[in-house]
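Write out the bound-state structure for 3,4-dihydroxyphenylalanine.
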Amino acid sequence: MKQQLENIKKVASDELKTIKSISDLEKFRVKYLGKKGELTDVLRGMGKLSNEERPVIGKLANEVRFFIEESIEERSKELAKEEQRQRIAREAIDITMPGKRKSLGTKHPLSIVMDEIKDVFIGMGYTIAEGPEVELDWYNFEALNTPPNHPARDVQDTFYITDNILLRTQTSPVQVRVMEKQKPPIRIICPGRVYRSDEVDATHSPIFHQVEGLVVDKGITMGDLIGTLKEFAKALFGKNTEIRLRPHHFPFTEPSAEVDVTCWTCGGSGCRVCKGEGWIEILGAGMVHPNVFRMSGIDPEVYSGFAFGIGVERTAMGRFNIDDMRLLYENDIRFLRQFK
Ligand code: DAH
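---
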C-alpha cells in the first residue's frame, strides 16, 4: 500500500506537468481526489490494515493528498498567469500604427446659407412657419390674388397632380396658411422647397429653395420693409452692402419690387459676375395686397404688412461664388468639401 501511494504521487506529479488548461486540471483533480479517485480508493482500503500499519500509511496518505492538492493549486496559478500572458499578447495594440481616419461630412452650402438666413430673422424676432410642398391651387395661386388665367401663372408653370392640387411653385402660400390661423401681429419666415417645370441649366432647376417672409401689424410701412431687407443684406453679404428696389409686379403685393444687392464681387463698380451692372437680384418683395388680407380673414383697413421671397440658390451662389447651380445638386464631395 505504501508502494501504491508513492506510485500515485509519482504518476500524478508527472501527469501534472503535461496539463495545459484549467479544465484539464479539474479532470486531473477528480481523477485523484474525487469520490471515485485513485487516492480515495486507496484510503478506503485502510480498514483492512493492522493497528501498527494504519497510522503510518494514514500519515503517508495525507501527505500524498496534501502534495496533490498543493500541486494543483500551484499549477492552477501558473496556468492562470499563462492565460493572462497570452491574452495580453493577443490584445496588444501597436500604438505606432496610423489610426483610422474618420471622415466627417460638411454642411451643404444651401444648408449653410439657409441657416444664416434663419439666424438673421430669428434675431429680429421672427418665428419659423411651415407648409406643405404638395399644395392646393387655392393657396398657391387664388388666395394670393392670382385667379385662373392670370398671366403670372404662366411663368410659374408647375407640376399638377390634379386640377386643383400641385407642387407649390413658391413658399408664398404659407403666408395665407399662417394668416388664416394666426391673428396679427405676425412675424414669420418660411424656408422651404419649391417646384417649377423648368429645364435644368446653370441658373435653373425644377426643384429649388426659397425663404418667404411675412410681417403683419398695425402701421407697418414700406420703410419697415426696406430697413429689414437692408439688415438682412448686410448680415449675409457684409456691412458695406446696399440694396436697391426696382418696381415690379407680383399679384399678391402692391406696390411690389424686385430687390438687388450690391455685387458681392466688385462691390458695385461692375464686373463679370454682375454683368457690369454692379447689382444682383436676390429677392422679390412688397406690401401685402388688400385682396390677400381679405381672403385670409384679416381686415386691410386695420392692418398692413410686407412680404418677401428670397431665392436661396441665388444667395448661396453669390455667397460662395458658385457659377453653376447644378453643382449644388450633383453632390460631388470634391465640391461639397470646400464648404467648411
Ligand atoms: N413668390 C415670389 C416668386 O416666387 C417671390 C416673392 C415676391 C415673394 C414678392 C413675396 C413677395 O412674398 O412679396 O417669384
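---
The mean pLDDT is 92.
The longest helix spans residues 53-91.
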